[in-house]
Amino acid sequence: MSKPRTPSVWLSKAAVNGALVLAVVYMLFPLVWLLTAATKDAGGLLAGNAFSFEGFDLGGNLSRVAEYNDGIYFRWYANSLLYAGLGALACSLVSVAAGYAFHVYDFRGKEKLFGLVLLGVLVPTTALALPMYLLASEVGIVNTYWAVLIPVLVNPFGVYLSRVFCAGYIPDEALEAARIDGAGEMRVFWSIGLRMVMPGFVTVFLFQFTAVWNNFFLPLVMLSDQKLYPLSLGLYAWNSNAHAEPDYYPLVVTGSLLAVVPLVVAFVSLQRHWKAGLTAGSVK
């Protein structure tokens, strides 16, 4: 027969659940504001009644975003998808390959080299923006797509995380069996190692996709042509104009709402793999 719950247990559960509810409200509040504010015109936003649905005009705001400056917003959208999608995919592959090499192979200076990778995790990306600009200027790729794509291909934290995943997911016996069957090292990595560590690949992809999608400072330094801007930089340019022309406010808010969609889609569609990665090693 189970013992009755004491008041302290109920209080503890109430405190924990209350804290979780507050955390959820804190995280969802900006999104709710964005959803309601995107339905307002400039007058409604400046009047401070963003949380009401009075004067609902979401369709008009979407139409104005699509038509402004010959649809430049969706050019920025495509640029962000290119930078974040292609950059995160290539970065994840590079990170997993490097993590796999650190886990599987023994070579001279291995741990010292990995120590340099860990040191790279401690360096803020903003501190590297100016050196990367100077390097890009030397090779003549400033104000091109490559100026943003190439720097995001390397992620020291992704390499570290990939090595951890490889250690937890890839048994040495599986690799040895493949080698005995005559598979080369590239075939072993591509057919066995990469498939086994796919939850780690997805985790690195999500981290990098989010980071590149929200990246602002690197494009600000590298790009001057508006047609190459990502969403973060394009919305910043609109917001800068909003102080002088309030009609830009609905464009900024509606554009920000649309900018959230790929992040939500990515996390929802890949959460199965991501959850599998987070629970790795929890049950033996």
What is shown here, in short?
The chain has 14 helices and no strands.
How far is the first residue's CA from the last residue's CA? 31 Å
Number of strands: 0
> Percentage of helical residues?
over 70%
Uncertain ranges: none
**What structural category do the secondary elements indicate?**
mainly alpha
What share of the residues does DSSP label as strand, in percent? under 5%
Q: How many alpha or pi helices?
A: 14
Largest sheet: none
Evaluate the radius of gyration: 24 Å
Mean pLDDT: 86
| SSE pattern, N- to C-terminal | HHHHHHHHHHHHHH
Shape verdict: globular
Protein name: Carbohydrate ABC transporter permease
Organism: Streptomyces tanashiensis
Family: Belongs to the binding-protein-dependent transport system permease family.
Membrane topology: Multi-pass membrane protein
